[in-house]
């Protein structure tokens, strides 16, 4: 993998002072920060009704362009991950697992349940996961981001089960603006460079406008190093598949050599090439350990290049009819890097040249009851090189339509949208199963493969696996496998929206919105032939997937004023909505909402909303076919934890069930699993039904007239998802636990009618699992959001004392996050689900204007979390969790005039190291929740013409 280094000339000098005015995530208010109430007609995300002085009945978090600029974030996911309502998804620091994308996950319900909009319209997903890649969203073009938490299917349709993230771009731009930014960590790595230009002009005497955007971003990747020593050694004990090789003892044909009783697991390593020695299964990964430490070669930050472009145009054909079009195109390249291929279960014939010419190995093989049986062998293919996965993504989104003003305040808009994303995933340095089998076949020599093999593979080179460094470059080249997969997602979307006042009621106008939508999604995933056939060791085998879904939808909304301007009722309003969706897969679905608001006095508004949301299964969930993965699931039969080396006590029932599976008593044989991961195969389900969620929000908004600029909100939320589409039993850990609880391989807990045995073992006794999807889970989550904002024009404004102070506090309390009856709130890790779910997450922001200078501070708090593996339901424990964290960011900008501005800042001012904990999500920690870069400096400039 090539490392990208930047030495760009900067457009700015370093300006580093106080803080980042971080993300203000309160309710969306029509009033400006100064408290003025005279605003024009607006549409707030969560409803299509055009209103004046609108306060949303659903909690809406808003992130402004000012806040984005203050943080200096080039990547959109970093902006959103500061919001307490967001459980971080994939990001620039994801490596394993990762797919090259950056995603957003509201309330932890999953990225595919968060609907992403751009200018209020759907944006095309980037691959089979049905999630939108936030790399396609240029941060410099964002005017604001509105985030609605809680179901919004009644307004927007499927995928809005958890809520909506709406990126609203700058429009009607005139002139030219150039932004440039450079950043580097305090350790001299992790460099990032971003350059963009926004340009626009009015046309036809102001009847139209064309706004364009082009941008380029470049990010350097980095590996664990001495400055980040917490990442240099795998905290989970690494892998039992090491560079010296591992000779596995097979219970049905065990080794009986001296010191190796037939009941013993008796694995052998080859520290001395060709000579079997006792396998040192030391999970501390010290110099004498035969396990493999994969941490040093796994990236902590992925290198990437990104090109963004956009064109936004509108033209007033008449005073009442406007045509518009939007075109977005993004090209990204992102790399991840993993340890060299772990080749497991290799069958090496005893007639192999290197077996026959290694006397100690041959003598050891001859101690078996059947000495002619093949050797079962594992080896880390270090000589082939680290595995590099490159994602080349091209995303196109085009929207065009007409917008018309009708009689009165009635408006109509018709839009056609087409989106296409193509992801080409190229893999280097994998290992071919068929070529490796050919290279170890019997009948060859040290330099020539067997004649029968050469007829099939003329270029075959023999390979010696018995020791470190024994694979020649020629042999490595022969077994090396480079391949590529292609995923194409296409969407066509037709929408018609009509809004206006139906009639006047005594308390005000009855505002309505209604419309129709047609949507067609198609997915084609074409894996490389070798990957589809399973002729690979180092990456997950996947099958081709293709399919198409369509939906026809009708919706209606109404805002009904009931009472106005009477004692104790300044305003009382009802909000209603319903949506009917007819899918070709699951039939007709209905989503609806009912709620309202009550203002007893002008400054206080009480609000509540009940929403029924639905989500139809996507193409991949319906048709996923036997994809391979390695979740962190410990084999219950292991007498020691392979991550920590700690002894484990097996209950009598577990011990008996393990004896049935292994063919030997795991306690007397000293069975120890090689890894803390379990190879698993994942399946879709064409019989999936829709998910349904019920969301209740109750809250209050207070904007006291006696404190201009102060806004406070407090909201309770409760979300329940039935028919939750997910791996049965909540995950592979649940599948294994349920099967062991049943202790019967023929029981329903251990067998599935569609895929067969849910757990099984290979010849070496390694646990395997099959994991189909189903509408089998129930997810419930509840909590409280608190937000306050205060914008104060200081009374002594001017001069040294400055002019304006902005304060924002945003806090979420997670009362419960329950999946299949298991409570995950306040835990971190990837024991069964991969998530960090702190009880409390908060953000404090301060901003102060001092003439041409703006200084900002942001503090992010993440509560302490227990380890997910300590949850009593899993009957495990003893794992380390995380302590509480405060992150401090500072920034400043200086405006020379209206045309020239420079800025700079520091993220993670205190250089906080991330927590290292057991069952970690990726790289000894959760790199999407905690900062792995360290103290980070950025500087830049903005030029306007």
Query: What is the structural class?
Result: mainly beta
Q: How much is the average pLDDT?
A: 88
Radius of gyration: 30 Å
**Net shape:** elongated
Query: How many strands in all?
Result: 41
Please, could you describe this protein's structure?
With 945 residues, this protein is mainly β. The chain has a 22-stranded antiparallel β-barrel. A five-stranded mixed sheet has the order 1-4-5-2-3. Strands 11-10-9-15-14 form a five-stranded antiparallel sheet. Strand 28 and strand 29 (756-757) form a beta hairpin. The radius of gyration is 30 Å and the shape is elongated.
Helix/strand layout:
Layout: E1 60-64, H1 65-71, H2 76-80, E2 114-118, E3 121-122, E4 142-149, H3 153-156, E5 163-169, E6 175-185, E7 192-203, E8 208-219, E9 246-248, E10 268-272, E11 275-278, E12 304-318, E13 321-338, E14 342-348, H4 353-356, H5 359-365, E15 375-380, E16 387-405, E17 411-431, H6 433-439, H7 451-454, H8 473-479, E18 480-505, E19 508-526, H9 529-533, E20 545-566, E21 569-583, E22 587-601, E23 604-615, H10 619-623, E24 627-629, H11 652-662, E25 679-683, E26 691-702, E27 710-727, H12 732-742, E28 751-752, E29 756-757, E30 759-761, E31 767-793, E32 804-819, E33 822-823, E34 827-829, E35 835-837, E36 840-850, E37 853-862, E38 866-867, E39 885-895, E40 900-907, E41 936-944
Parallel strand pairs: 2-5, 25-31, 34-38
Antiparallel strand pairs: 1-4, 2-3, 4-5, 6-7, 6-41, 7-8, 8-12, 9-10, 9-15, 10-11, 12-13, 13-16, 14-15, 16-17, 17-18, 18-19, 19-20, 20-21, 21-22, 22-23, 23-26, 24-25, 26-27, 27-31, 28-29, 30-31, 31-32, 32-33, 32-36, 34-35, 36-37, 37-39, 39-40, 40-41
